[in-house]
Amino acid sequence: GLRHFLDLDRMGSQTLRQILDHARQMKARRGGMPRGAVDRDAPLSGDILLMIFQKSSTRTRISFEVAMRQLGGAASDLDGSRLQLGRGESIADTAHVLSAYGDAIVLRTDQHSNLTEMAQHATIPVINALTDHSHPCQLMADMLTIEEAKGPIRGQSVAWLGDGNNVASSLIHAAQRFGFRLRLACPPGHQPNPAVIEAALAEGADVGLCDDPIEAVAGASALYTDTWSSMGQERAPEELAPFEPYRVTSELLAKAAPDAIFMHCLPAHRGEEVTDAVIDGPQSVVWAQAENRLHAQKAILAWCLARG
Ligand code: CP
Ligand code: NVA
């Protein structure tokens, strides 16, 4: 079958572990090489990645482009606004056509069903670059980042604070597949997708919801938050009031395990979900997370496009 990368819960733990280990190896091998230099083995020489971003992106879009270059291939950003898709050509027809030109498709879209439809009709691998449901590429970079800072992910304790959004769902999937403890504290009405939690619990994952942010961070070696206003569900200032108790401040960080790391997928709304003192402080690993998008995605691409 085709090696789509759609969601972590649809992948096996062993496969995910292999991808993560490969990412770490490839990162180590690059040493001080210039960013534009091709990896010595150029594993994706001649391959073309077709990227469709129907929402804004800095990290995902650019790290995929650089990833393909380092792997010896190329990426083309198809500019969602200029595709016939924007004038009503179907996702299925677009999938057929793109499959004739490229070797893999990256899609960032609003409705998750757009992604699964693309994967259903494409005859080349499709990669989820974020939907309203999930953001699995982000979590692969984050697993790499946690392991660099804290050692093996299995058995770590992670706390999520704030909006139970797409990144939170992929974090739950990650807890389920990589075997770490996860506590999520979110305001009423903004809790994570219950189906995602139920599925994780049914598989025996150590995932739990708390109302109290202090309870969630107790013993945590990593605190993770994200914007209170995701793309496509922007909130007016007055709608943010329920989120206030979940802001990651120095006081909250001090209630986690000593030397806990602070994580954020970025972009940040500084002063809302996190204070400057935390995101710019010594426990923050946000720039490592952003860099690791590149290394993790190289390993994802190599897995999707491995032939034979
Ligand atoms: N974290 C993340 O996916 O960032 P972008 O929206 O800039 O791609
Ligand atoms: N939850 C955010 C993540 C951005 C990378 C959003 O969907 O906008």
UniProtKB/TrEMBL annotation:
Function: Reversibly catalyzes the transfer of the carbamoyl group from carbamoyl phosphate (CP) to the N(epsilon) atom of ornithine (ORN) to produce L-citrulline.
Organism: Iodidimonas nitroreducens
Pathway recorded for this protein: Amino-acid biosynthesis; L-arginine biosynthesis; L-arginine from L-ornithine and carbamoyl phosphate: step 1/3
Coiled-coil spans in chain: none
All copies of domain Aspartate/ornithine carbamoyltransferase Asp/Orn-binding, residue ranges: 155-304
Binding site for L-ornithine: N166, D226, S230, M231
GO biological process per UniProt: citrulline biosynthetic process; L-arginine biosynthetic process via ornithine
GO cellular component: cytoplasm
Binding residues for carbamoyl phosphate: S57, T58, R59, T60, Q84, R108, H135, P136, C137, Q138, C265, L266, R293
Domain Aspartate/ornithine carbamoyltransferase carbamoyl-P binding: 3-148
Protein's name according to its UniProt entry: Ornithine carbamoyltransferase
Pfam families from the UniProt entry: OTCace (PF00185), OTCace_N (PF02729)
Domain of life: Bacteria
Catalytic activity: carbamoyl phosphate + L-ornithine = L-citrulline + phosphate + H(+)
InterPro entries per record: Asp/Orn_carbamoyltranf_P-bd, Asp/Orn_carbamoylTrfase, Asp/Orn_carbamoylTrfase_sf, Asp_carbamoyltransf_Asp/Orn-bd, Orn/put_carbamltrans, OTCase_ArgI
